[in-house]
Amino acid sequence: MESTLPILRYRRVILDAVAPAKVTIITAETGAGKSTMVPMMLYGAGYRVVVTQPRRLAARSLAEYVAKGHGLAMPAIVGYHTGEERVALPNTPLLYCTDGLQLVRELVGHGIEGRETILVLDEIHEWNLNLEVLLAWTLRRLEAGEQFKLVLMSATMDTERLAAFVGGNPPVVRVPGRLFPVKRLTAKRDEVAAQAIAFAHRGENVLVFQPGKAEIGRLCRTLEAKLGPKAWVLPLHGELGPEEQQICFEPAPDGKVKIVVATNVAQTSVTIPDITVVVDDGIERRSEVIDGIQGLYLRPISQADVDQRAGRAGRVREGTYVLCSDVKMEARPAYSVPEILRLRLDQVVLRLAAQGVDAGDLRFFHSPKSEDIEEAKRMLIALGAMTLTDGLTLIGQRMSELPLNVRYARMLVAAELLGVVPQVAAIAACLEAGDIRGRPRESKGPPAWRRLTSEAKSDLLALYDVWKFGKPLLQTGRQAEALLERAGIFSRNFLRAEEVRDKILTAIERRIEVTEKKFRTPQAEREAILQACLAGFVDHLFCLEAGLYRGNDPHPRKLDGNTALVGHHPWIVGVPRDFESGPAEKRSIQRLVSTATVVEPKRLMDIAPHLVEHGAEGTFFNGRRVA
């Protein structure tokens, strides 16, 4: 199969373009073989190559595919490195990694360097936040005269605009695809399951796109019930472990058809080899900041994304793509809205400030709004990371050294002073991995995890109690997952939280003092843990009004349904989040406060005195009147 890849005919063209240029742009249609073969060409020509991918799954699967397909040793020749896995040596000459990991390496001074080194930014059309900053940063280095090469690749991108942005008239190589013909059909938006079932009955292997994990779970159950033992139904999303994801690439057992139900992790770079039909609801769940609150919203995918998804169907033979949507192609945007224009920028602003760069001065392909940068600075000022004159505080410098969400980084900096770093690292890991507290489907009573804690005033401490209960169960080996679930703990998130906690402790061991303090009483320890955690939540104070909680955004909110808090409380801190769900005609937005903790404003005023203002109208904390 690889010998017929169209991109192989362009080997000389690509190498001749790369040799004299600082930046080369390669646009290769879906199926051309760019993600596997271009790095191999460059490696074969004597370059050391680092290839970035937007997702962990793609970085891992591409590295394994290249190593196996070309008989190259892992990790001596080919490797991969993500935030959670490393199968690579310091000098591995062909390395696949996530763009987030490469960005961190660049900003801490361990980026690529040398005339014979090439950084390949693949799937650049996705324009996630890490990729946007990574391109701006590496172009800045090149403009400063540093010696390395940059290759930008995608199947769908505005090459003319990108070339103009890069400047210097970079060479552009265009490669056709190797797609088999793909018949495009449309259906009604509620026919996703029916279409998948119909094609499965015809013996076709089907890839179904859904916006999120919850929708994937519901559809998998429907398909299993309707098709029974004749179908092998598999979920595929970012929260699954590597082994669970890898199953989707295996051939179906004899006599069965395979149906993979996936989020957009299967949209680019990743090829599930035996798929011949794609059924798509044409929707994605994506993060956006609205009224200063980052939420998850259901949005139609772009025309470029439709083309990417359709391309998954024509890899092995003629295929079929069915778009189950009432939104016509011409009504969809040409390209997706870049993350830098719809997400919070606090981590970007902090990371750049640590390098002495104001985010507003960096040249981005998609320029963020100045008010979004200012909002990020306001949050960092609230957390004590920045001064009013945009300088980093000592706290901010410490936070920037930790490869964490800024909120969790602030918690750990406070935890060091209080001697509770391991405990707070566990809480941060649980927040990063997703709630470890399970709620069985169709359950009408209180969830089982409530038996594991007596905590009624802090979700943060309740999480810690649940984690402490679950930790010893990991020593039971194969029984661990069943025992965790029986206790009311979401085992998949718990196991991921354990991995994240280990990585947090490893990442901070040379930057933060991890030694645990000895406390006279368990309550004193809990107070110290809570004090450290509150340092990361001072920017979101909510007051109870008419049964709902009001913060600094325009919308009243209710507590997340899985909260540990009992009763109503005048003041809480927590994280506001919006979540859109439901079919098109009945969609609703839940406005919630998650990870809430009951608090007295005076306690926050002691933690963050720089947010206190006294005036004739009263005392205000971070803009909220508290007295």
> Cα distance, first to last residue?
72 Å
Category by helix and strand content: alpha/beta
| Contiguous runs where pLDDT drops below 50 for at least 5 residues | none
Kindly estimate the percentage of residues that lie in beta strands according to DSSP: 15-25%
| Quaternary form | single chain
Q: Output mean pLDDT.
A: 91
Radius of gyration, taken over Cα atoms and rounded to an integer in Å:
25 Å
Largest sheet, in brief, is: 8 strands, mixed
Approximate helicity band:
25-40%
How many E-type strands? Answer: 24
Number of helices: 20
What is the global morphology?
A: globular
Side by side, the strands of the main sheet go 4-3-5-2-6-7-1-8
What does this 3D model show about the protein?
- With 627 residues, this protein is α/β, with parallel strands linked by helices.
- The protein has an 8-stranded mixed sheet with strand order 4-3-5-2-6-7-1-8, with helices on both faces. The protein has a 6-stranded parallel sheet with strand order 9-16-13-10-12-11, sandwiched between helices.
- A hairpin with a 2-residue loop joins strand 14 and strand 15.
- Helix 11 packs across helix 12, helix 14 runs antiparallel to helix 19 and helix 15 packs across helix 16.
Structure in a nutshell:
With 627 residues, the protein is of the alpha/beta class.
Keywords:
24 strands; 8-stranded mixed β-sheet; 20 helices; 34% helix; alpha/beta; 6-stranded parallel β-sheet; 627 residues
